[in-house]
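Recap slide: Transcriptional regulator, sequence and predicted structure.
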Amino acid sequence: MLKICEFFGVEEFEIMMPQNQFKLLIQVRPQLHTTENVRLPETTHFETLARSSTHDLDKYLGYYFEYYLSMAHPGKLLRTLVCFTKVNQKIYYQRTERIVEQSHRKPYHGVYLGMANFLVDRIFMVDYESLTKHEISQTILFPTFKNRITQLKGLKIGVSGSGERMPICTRVVYEYLGASINITKAFALCGLYDLSATDIDDSIKAAVKNEMEPHEVHFRARY
């Protein structure tokens, strides 16, 4: 009886009332919340961030090449394709990986979906791997204070895609491509590169190196 009363949100004496009295009591009582109208905590959190975020991200909409030292393939530089879009005043993005581990095998594709917020002169990005749903990554970028966007730099934290699943932090560079691009051609350029590759700009290779100065006690992003 107690379990039944708890489930339906009534008292034990109420459920023993005559049918007409019980029916009237339920009709005048405020309805219990259901999963359809309950405000979930994560909804409140995301909306709080959205209200705190400025609209300065609008100028960052479009396509980017993302560069960082691969977490799953040490010593290799990974180039991915990122697209920022705006929906209902919120900024969403997709990161797409294309990795060819062996020349005779088909490429592996990873698709990450996330949201971005601009909070006090920093761009905060959180995404998850949408195909396997096995990982979440976070990226924090410096914005640009110039009219023209060329590169955005910052840090990325995630786990390696190998079986080790080691938590890793690495420097990252976003290279702006434009508001509209040939996606097929851009995606074909994504993948793993040697640090000696001549088709990757030297400034990008230098910016993603994960080196620390002797006086540094934290792993820091570079402007």
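The beta strands are 62-69, 76-87, 90-99, 108-118, 123-129, 136-141, 151-159, 167-178, 191-194.
Helices lie at 2-8, 12-15, 19-28, 41-52, 183-188, 202-207.
(End of recap.)
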